[in-house]
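Usage

Read records sequentially. Each one opens with the input sequence:
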Amino acid sequence: MTLNAELRAFYEARQQQIPAEIREIMQRAGVELAASGQIDHALTAGAQAPRFTLPSATGEAVGLDQLLTQGPVVLTFYRGAWCPYCNLALRSLQQHHADITHRGAQLVAVSPQIPDESLSLTEKHALDFTVLSDVGSDAAKAYGLAFDLPDDLAAVYDKLGFDLHRVNGGHPRTLPVPATYVIDQSGTVRWAFADTDYTKRAEPADILAALDALR
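and closes with the structure output:
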């Protein structure tokens, strides 16, 4: 089963568990984000990847320039450990991590969560790749991915107990559009995926094909 088939199956099963009024708010927010033109701001193939330095789950400062000295980088932005779709996507990437490193690339995941949350995520899912904290979403903004939640959806997330104010270090409203980039050693984006629909993610097979195209 492909990752997106797994995500779709999860979505369909989950819809039956969510109250209708909450489903309506979530669906309306998704439609509004798709219509907002946000995706037009997302970095695309051929662009130079904005540089950043962010703390890892263990507090180490990690810079994109430093990573690129060792080979291509697969950079993926996710919403947070509270998002089950993100967790499914990260687990899928972990399953393909050896295939990515075999191609000489490094996999790096970025979220707006504080390092403690990233560390919990890394330990819970036994992730072997680097997870970075973009508190305040400056890196996501540079990649054209950051957006603010509408009031009613933010209230829903609060009601569901996600506590984004705490896990995002005082920035509860700003999230990234889920996106994945393959960046070559010159810092050029060679392949890009971004979608305002958080139930859709980059397929690992497509990431591997993009890495193969660099060789």
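Summary fields computed downstream for this record:
- The first helix runs from residue 3 to 15.
- The beta strands are 53-55, 61-63, 73-77, 106-111, 130-133, 146-148, 174-176, 179-183, 189-194.
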